[in-house]
Amino acid sequence: MSVFDDILIILWGFLLITLMGIGGFFMFRKFLKKLPKEDGNSKMDWEEYYMEKTKHMWQEEEKEILEDLVSPVPELFRDVAKQKIASKIGEVALQKKQKTITEEVLIEGYILATPKRDHKFLRKKLNQRKIDMTPYEHLFDQS
Fold first, then answer.
1. ∠ CA(17), CA(22), CA(27), 5° rounding?
2. Average pLDDT of the chain?
3. What is the pLDDT of residues 18-52, one digit of tens each?
4. What are the residues whose beta carbons fall under 8 Å from the beta carbon of 109, sequence distance 6 or more?
5. pLDDT confidence bin for 16, thresholds 50/70/90
6. Which of 6, 57, 73, 108 makes a 20 to 30 Å CA pair with 17?
């Protein structure tokens, strides 16, 4: 074996270990989301509950707005992000006793579901859609 072969084997080993570590990290996060909380339901159980309770409340226009707002999320993670955000929007709609998902409820739920580190991208997207953020400023501090 040459030195080049040895280096190639070492690099291949590091690549495999790195990829397995990344995969393990995401599997562990999914595992943590499935653990039951104090109320007996996990985070994922609540997400599914709110999705099921509010799926009839969504109009085409609001679905398109949600689709547009999640477009900056990398495609690999977009479905997971959309489910998390849509369930938060559903939770807000149920708390406000809405009959349908309105743009105001959608934006409020989206802000609450978005981590602080992504607020810059969210603000940019809302500005592109020419949505006034003044009524929602207090929500950016809550999420």
1. 120
2. 88
3. 999 998 988 888 787 788 888 888 888 888 999 99
4. 85, 88, 89, 90, 91, 92, 93
5. very high
6. 73
The answer to whether residues 88 and 113 touch, using CB atoms and an 8 Å cutoff, is: yes
Which residue shows structure tokens 């009959």? 99
Question: With bands split at pLDDT 50, 70 and 90, how would you rate the model's confidence at 115?
Answer: confident
d(CA 83, CA 61): 17
Residue in the block written with tokens 């406000």 = 96
Please classify residue 140 by burial: count the beta carbons closer than 10 Å to its beta carbon, then call 0-12 exposed, 13-18 middle and 19+ buried: middle
User: CA distances (Å), 78 to each of 21, 67, 92, 99, 114, in order?
Assistant: 22, 9, 21, 27, 13
Per residue, the 3-state secondary structure of the chain, as one string, reads CCHHHHHHHHHHHHHHHHHHHHHHHHHHHHHHHHCCCCCCCCHHHHHHHHHHHHHHHCCHHHHHHHHHHCCCCCHHHHHHHHHHHHHHHHHHHHHCCCCCCCHHHHHHHHHHHCCHHHHHHHHHHHHHCCCCCHHHHHHHHHC
User: Which distant-in-sequence residues (6+ apart) come within 8 Å of 140 by Cβ?
Assistant: 111, 116, 119
